Amino acid sequence: MRILVLGGDGYCGWATSLYLSSRGHQVAIADSFHRRLWDHELGAQSLTPIRALPERLRVWHAVSGQTIEPFVGDITDYEFVASSFQAFEPETVIHFAEQRAAPYSMIDRQHAVFTQVNNVVGTLNVLFAIKEFSPNCHLVKLGTMGEYGTPNIDIEEGYIRIQHNGREDLLPFPKQPGSFYHLSKVHDSHNIMFCCKIWGIRATDLNQGVVYGTVTAEVSLDEALINRFDYDEVFGTALNRFCVQAAIGHPLTVYGSGGQTRGFLDIRDTVRCIELACINPPERGECRVFNQFTEQFSVLELAELVQSAAHKMGIDAPIDHLPDPRVEAEEHYYNARHTKLLDLGLRPHLLSESLLDSLVNIAFQYRDRIDASLLLPKVDWRNSRNDRRQRPAAMAAAAD
Ligand code: NAD
Ligand code: USQ
Fold it and tell me: Most buried among 39, 243, 250, 324, by the most CB within 10 A?
């Protein structure tokens, strides 16, 4: 299959590109390197030392014999999207190319506007390019479980059957996102659903939970292929942050009571879920939604798991309950359905099985690169600033 991976230089995109390439698919990566720019802006960097894309691709060719073609550009630029589609003629487009950090989108007005412009315009351009150049192409789009929020009822996979005043319909599940980033995903989902209806595009919207893990079979083939491991307060997810904190004896930063419950999955399951979506495409005009996660945990449960993994290594990792900088329910009901990918053949790797020790180990292995000044939360949902003096030119252009 000819598969174009938008955002293939990022965390999920890099692991997915190599996995699909190793399975014999013809893969191309499109990326603007925005993610690397945001690290510069925030004064942060991946815990693991990641190489430049050309070097990554050279090494991948050397170890696997496979070629991955790079397209460097911004998908909010329609000319770039159009020329990439014309040159590569994809049968499937996997779309990871968005600003994905909730805290980044809550820094101030410019970051909120940038996030929504980047994500919503990028996705619209991809939809228009599919219509114009590859109407049969399958769009596999990364959404997020956070689109649903935390309703006090079971969460279904995309749609819910509702009876109202004696009538019944199958309707999109209600969305209650918790940041301008999560909102951008809801806007994308609506645009995708609409384009499937009016143009007969085929799409899979993958509402993914929080992904953890750095190692996949392909990235372990050479150190130059190593994947990102983000731990800063903006891009680092809670589990990564707890592992890094444990490695340097910093208290684990649980926000509030830690009762916030989310769905999680191993990066090895992310790449398999994407493959399952690609090789089982929907019909033309169908917009299907899969909830892509394998287990659910509360934040406090995660902290306790890290604490006990650290304890086995002789490390003391106390838990600190900080005031929650986000506006979110700290205790709530959470039960989300996630059977469609299992039905297609997913065999999950579970966090409890082994991975936690290896995550803490990676944090320990690279602990000399840890910058402790990036650990405490600074972005405050209740107090997003109106402006910020320094910002990259691309962001200024989008926000003004
Ligand atoms: P990431 O930031 O590591 O990678 C995203 C990549 O997209 C980066 O390489 C970035 O440079 C590129 N990009 C961003 N905007 C672009 C643009 N306008 N044009 C071209 N390239 C652009 O993020 P990730 O963690 O790999 O997440 C990938 C996708 O999966 C995102 O859409 C995210 O919302 C979704 N997702 C991630 C997680 C997670 O836990 N990481 C969970 C659920 C959903
Ligand atoms: N949290 C802490 N301590 C920390 C960091 C976070 O308690 O040091 C809490 C947060 O308050 C939140 C929970 O942990 O309640 C999850 O936060 P997170 O930063 O680990 O993840 P989140 O913001 O939800 O975002 C991540 C990815 C995003 C993806 C989302 C999937 O960055 O791209 O969309 O997970 S989901 O959570 O299902 O929406």
Answer: 243
